[in-house]
Amino acid sequence: MARVGLKSQAVPVSELKYQIRARYTDSTITVYQAYATEIGLPAAGAGRFPAAWKRDRMTWIKPSFLWMMYRCGWGTKEGQETVLAVEIARDGFEWALEHACLSHYEHGLHSDRSAWKRQMKRAPARVQWDPERDLRLRPLNHRSLQLGLSGEAAHRYADAWTVSITDITHLAHQIHRHVRAGDLDAAQRLLPQESAYPTPDGLLDHLRP
To answer: At residue 185, does pLDDT exceed 60?
Structure first.
């Protein structure tokens, strides 16, 4: 997929309600997931998802580190004790967005509910937008992307798009300790640096309410 600049907006990207903020390079984007140790540790050790990772189930990836911390409780929730940073190919990520369907019906975006349901059945990816979180995991005004992958998208994610998998559980715990101690400056310094992801023109038009 060709790289093009951000589509011009009436407001700065930083002020958009629906935005993708992430760590990325010219060719990759980092997303986050959390798993039980029997999945997370082998994945990080091998740099790829093991056979035990179920490729026929929907899996949700999150470009926002803090939203992942909200979801997994800083790596303390049962079954989410191992926090992974998964670096994947940008062209794969954008393929998923291109072929995704919004996870809920949106009047004006979908012609009717029946059309939306048909899209949902066909789409290998699903998008929902949830309030971004601050260091204390309180909701912010703008929303963060959650991308669900199933079928072809899940197989591509696990076996074609993944470039590296890193266990960042220790980092999550370290930041959490600073937050609990009230030292938000120290916590902030450790956060992965995320910025507005340069989506090609029109890529999110069918996904932003």
So the answer is: yes
**pTM of the predicted structure, to 2 decimals:** 0.89
- The residues near 95 (Cβ < 8 Å, ≥ 6 apart) are 1, 153, 156
State residue 9's pLDDT score: 37
* CA 11 to each of CA 16, 27, 130, 183: distance values in angstroms, whole numbers, following the listed order: 7, 27, 20, 33
Asked if residue 1 has pLDDT above 80, the reply is: no
Task: Determine the length of the chain.
Answer: 209
Cα–Cα distances in Å, from 106 out to 58, 100, 102, 110, 112?
22, 14, 8, 6, 9
DSSP string, 175-200: HHHHHHTT-HHHHHHHSPP-EE--PP
Instruction: Point out which residues pair with 24 in neighbouring strands.
Output: 29
209/205 Cα distance (integer angstroms): 8
* CA dist., res. 7 & res. 149, Å (int): 25
Sequential DSSP letters for 156-167 = HIIIIIEEEEEE
Task: Write the CB contacts of 186 (distance below 8 Å, at least 6 apart in sequence).
Answer: 178
